[in-house]
Design brief:
The complex is a heterodimer of chains A (175) and B (122).
Chain A (H helix, E strand, L loop, with lengths): L5 H13 L3 E6 L4 E4 L1 H7 L3 H4 L4 H9 L1 H17 L3 E7 L2 E10 L8 E8 L1 H44 L11
Antiparallel strand pairs in A: 1-2, 1-5, 3-4, 4-5
Chain B lengths: L3 E5 L3 H13 L3 E5 L2 H10 L4 E5 L7 H10 L8 E5 L4 H10 L4 E4 L4 H11 L2
Helix pairs in contact in B: 2-3
The chains are: A alpha+beta (175), B alpha/beta (122).
Chain lengths: 175, 122
């Protein structure tokens, strides 16, 4: 890989810094090779602190061993089978959407994995609020419709009784 | 009123040693042999400081930290992490990601423990 000169390095850093999603590059051993500032924010660690550590080692305390092992198996599948893995993680109380893709040129061997992380905590909360509001709306609708149906039935009954008495009906709208 | 310190450590001898050091210095100590017991004790009684071993069987220290952070308790409860491993990544994660107050690597000196406890309780 060619060395970057000062301008290229600043340009590269500027591009990485402007990407709003957390982006990490892992090598074939799932060791962190690079990350952008958005990824630093999501993981709570600076690049110089995280670089060189296997991602599963770093995530194990945050996710617990079961979920870390599943994620590690998924990332290894991405390396072997060249597909994109999508997942959601609960990281230190935040919901993170993860997308892992193989890092490779077409027809070339895979060099690692690129991870894109999005903090979707607020979106999840908003979705939860909308679901609750929809549930509430459906309950109100059911209650209102029951009451309306009952009122209509009563009007029909009143009209029927008036007919039996040869009186004019009171609720034409219910006919 | 002495400060109350909960020690969550699965090795009985080490737990006893920490307890003795802190008791002799005037602290009121409580002990738990594992993470599950520790979490239960934290729910039941007020504690001023938690000394938490990271590597324990069953519910380990990380799980305790995850739960405390999930409950928003890491902002109000100072935690000192205790582990045999002097691994920088554990230290960084414990302090930076979970918000633990300090970190002690086993084996440690009595003086070091007391200094860190006093500092965490400031």
């Amino acid at each position: 890989m060619p060395e970057l000169d000062g301008f290229q390095l600043r340009y590269y850093e500027s591009v990485m810094g402007s990407i709003p999603s957390g982006t990490l590059a892992l090598n074939m051993e799932l060791v962190i090779a690079g990350m952008n500032p958005a990824a630093e924010q999501i993981l709570g660690l600076k690049m110089h602190e995280a670089i060189g550590f296997p991602l599963p080692r770093l995530l194990n305390p945050l996710l617990g061993s079961d979920r870390t092992q599943k994620l590690e198996a998924g990332l290894k599948s991405v390396l072997r089978q060249r597909f994109t893995l999508s997942n959601e993680l609960l990281l230190a109380n935040r919901v993170i959407a993860l997308k892992a893709s193989p890092l490779a040129e077409p027809q070339q061997p895979v060099m690692g994995v690129v991870l894109v992380l999005e903090d979707i905590t607020e979106r999840k909360r908003a979705e939860e609020r909308i679901h609750l509001q929809l549930d509430e709306l459906q309950r109100w609708y059911a209650v209102t419709m029951t009451r309306e149906t009952r009122a209509l039935n009563l009007k029909v009954e009143v009209n029927a009784l008036l007919r039996r008495l040869n009186e004019p009906i009171r609720y034409p709208s219910a006919e | 009123m002495p400060k109350r310190i909960l020690i969550v450590e699965d090795e009985p001898e080490l737990q006893r040693a920490i307890q003795l050091i802190l008791d002799l210095d005037g602290y009121a100590t409580l002990t738990a042999r594992g993470g599950a017991e520790g979490l239960q004790m934290l729910d039941q009684q007020p504690v001023d400081l938690l000394i938490l071993d990271l590597m324990m069987p069953g519910v380990d220290g990380w799980e305790v930290l995850r739960q405390l952070k999930g409950q928003g308790k890491m902002e109000i409860l100072p935690v000192i992490l205790l582990t045999a491993k002097d691994q920088s990544i554990d230290k960084m994660l414990g302090l930076k990601v979970f918000g633990a107050r300090d970190y002690i690597t086993k084996p440690f000196e009595r003086k070091d423990l007391l200094e860190r406890v006093a500092k965490a309780l400031e």
